[in-house]
Amino acid sequence: MTGVLAYLAAVWQVFRKDIQVEWRGRQGIPVMLVFALMIVFLFNFALQLSPDLQAGLAAGLLWVSLAFASTLGLNRSISLERENNALDGLLLAPVDRSAVFFGKALGNFCFTSLVGLLLLPIVSLFYQQNLLRLPLAAVLLLGVAAYTSLGTLLSALSIQARTRDILLPVLLFPLALPILIAAVEATRGLLSGQTLAELSSWVYLILAGALLFNAAGLLFFEIILEE
Amino acid sequence: MNVLKKPILLVILDILTLVLVPAAVVLVVFFTPVEAVMGPVQKVFYFHVSAAWAGMLCFIIGAVTGGAYLLTRRLHWDWLSTSSIEVGLVFALIAILSGMIWARPIWNTWWVWDPRLTTTAIMTLVYLAYFILRSGLNTQETRARLGAVYAIVAVLTVPLTFFSIRLFRTIHPVVIATGGGDGPAFNMSPRMLTALFASLFVFTLMLIDLVWHRYRLAQLQYETSPEVN
Amino acid sequence: MAANPTPYAAHIDIGGLSKRFQHRPVLNGLSLTLNDGDLCILVGDNGAGKTTLLRILAGLVRPSQGEVSVCGSSPIGNPRIRRMIGYVGHQPMVYQDLTARENLVHYARLYGLAKGEEVVADAIAAFNMAGYQHQPVRTLSRGMQQRLSLARATLHNPAILLFDEPHTGLDQEAAAFFDQSLRRLNQPGRIILLAAHRPQRLLTVATHVAWLREGAISDHLPVTALGSAPLLNSYLQEVS
Asked: Chain A: residue nearest B131 by CA?
């Protein structure tokens, strides 16, 4: 029992430290948000979107901008641990190393979700679509959970490469594509008036992804990081 | 043991493959009937299905042997894992290309964003990224260790691709029809079935042969110049 | 600090340890035993594998072959053993944007230390950091970061202390402070293994010297017995 509590305390502490660093430096969330907005604007001109956007386009716009912006946060989160070799400090801690994975993944989940939730009113405003709905926020959080847990796992792979600064998106996007497609489909369905129950197969696909990627983190994080 | 010496079993397998692959071509071209609706282009189907099967089998072998590496930390498992994935990638590309050749006259387009085609493309991209990952890593041990973890996570795309025609609405034909699936199913004549199973068998032999050769290449590379590996 | 850091007897036992990178052996059949109270200086050329040996003992690197036992268990993937190890590496392992104190509080919590605040306050006093404890790490000098690193590694009162070239980049004053801290940290119930390229100044503090060359320990003897090892002696002359 104390073992479980110590484990959860370590997860919480890794997460808390990430929040603290973000609060001090403010180098993650603002950058991600601005980048996501720039993608939204870029798409507007690249695809000549009209203000009365179709449901499908709004869903795609939301997820593409969020997926790109999130990679910045994921990269930042892991490069923070590379500076001064702080990662070794975490690996030396007397807890199972998967606790580090869950702590980092929790931080990434919170940062990307916050950016996603902030994007909802912004996309709503620009494209006359009401994205401020509870089921849509639920899909957003679930999709981000799957995406960032995979991203956290892969960022631990990518920092060990010579090409670490560019590798993460190349590894992350193909593996995350099924999750992103499901998230876009579910969001599109909600925007065109379907209920969550009607979209359950997409939601289950995202849920399965979230569970599998977290299980992979639990199993493999230690193996990935020990030399 | 002299690794330069080619194992006798591999020689036999080479000969078998060299004889049976042309035999399968002859079988498909002359033995199978021309499909009534689609015409001769339907014959691509036998090799298309076989290549897809071989590719997926390779990816599964890649994940299983990757797991074996993580458990034993013996580089042989990594050679086998990476060889399988490399050969699997070639088969997956053959499956995609042969599918496009079939789709052009039948669907009137080279490509549609159908679930089966999309998931196959995703699977191929995922395994392309596997080689990008490996090429960025410095030591054999790191490549083996991280490659194995990646291969195990990546293999999730194999069931996703295989079952995509059952999970989603699709226009892709269902070959192994077991009740479910919305896609059109083939009604194959006994001769077609025979040819299909023959070509599946031949492709499986070819897969083993190619992976074995690729494995030997990795082994020889290691033995002759371990530093550059 | 408590006189006896852990209920376990501090002990390190390495037998036939090998570690290969790229087919090339860095460590090759290395054996070494260290006992409670030892302060052993690990000498050897750059690239001899000193860092690798320390990282294996800290549970950061997995050995290719051989037995490693730290206080009776293998350190590979073993949180219980990690609890007994303090490791000071080349880098301070702290976060640039946090203050010195915040970094220590972070580690105290990560190690699940009861009375974490108290422990941190003690460490700040012990390593003379009160003057800059509220400054972000990125504004600290190398010497200050070194003290922070020492405080970080000893917060949980480890039975095994591993130092990797701790004098690198320190000025005279900071080096003297380190030597003083080392004397204080050297107490019964603890093993200190310190890798040093130029060990001369440490020979007055150390109890033992181990010479790592060609992937193995060629000599391991008490400092008092150095006279009986002419080869090691001339090596020590050469690098000083």
From this structure: A171
CA distance A169 to chain B (A): 10
In the structure, what pLDDT confidence band is assigned to residue C21 with cuts at 50, 70 and 90?
A: confident
Q: With contacts defined as CB-CB under 8 Å, which chain C residues touch A227?
A: 55, 60-62
Start-to-end CA span in chain B (Å):
21
Q: Which of C18, C45, C17 is nearest to C31 (CA)?
A: C17
DSSP, residue by residue, A101-151 = HHHHHHHHHHHHHHHHHHHHHHHHHHHT-----HHHHHHHHHHHHHHHHHH
Closest Cα in chain A to C109: A13
Q: How far is B125 from chain C (nearest CA, A)?
A: 29
Ranges of residues in chain B with a pLDDT under 70 are 1-3, 169-170, 175-187, 226-229
Distances (CA, A) of B143 to A174, A217, B75, C61: 20, 18, 10, 16
- A-C contacts (CB, under 8 Å): 88
Query: Can you tell me the ipTM of this complex?
Result: 0.91
- CB of A24 within 8 Å of any CB in chain C? yes
**What's this model's pTM, rounded to 2 decimal places?**
0.91
Partner B contacted by A4 (CB < 8 A): no
* B26 lies in some domain: no
Domains in chain B, number:
1
Is residue B24 assigned to a domain? Answer: no
Structure tokens at A32: 């991600």
Cα distance between residue C66 and residue C43, in whole Å: 21
Cα-based distances in Å from A205 to A64, A139, B146, B158, B187: 18, 11, 26, 15, 31
Residues 171-200 of C with CB under 8 A from A: none
C-beta atoms of C110 and A97 within 8 A? no
**Mean pLDDT on A88-117:** 95
Contact in structure between C71 and C9 (CB atoms under 8 Å):
yes
In chain A, the residue whose alpha carbon lies closest to the alpha carbon of C21 is: A227
Chain B touched by A56 (CB under 8 Å):
no
Residue B109 resides in a domain: yes
Domain boundaries, chain C: 8-84+158-240, 92-157
The one-character DSSP state at A215 is H
- Residue in A closest to C85 by C-alpha: A92
Q: Cβ separation of A177 and B154 shorter than 8 Å?
A: no
Which residues on chain B are in Cβ contact (under 8 Å) with A171? 129, 132-133, 150
Cα of B194 to nearest chain C Cα, Å? 49
Mean pLDDT of chain C: 88
**Are A179 and A209 a contacting pair, CB within 8 Å?**
yes
Whether residue B12 lies inside any domain: the answer is no
CATH topology of domain C8-84+158-240: Rossmann fold (3.40.50)
Residue range C181-200, pLDDT digits in tens: 999 999 888 999 999 888 87
The yes-or-no verdict on residue C1 having pLDDT over 70 is no
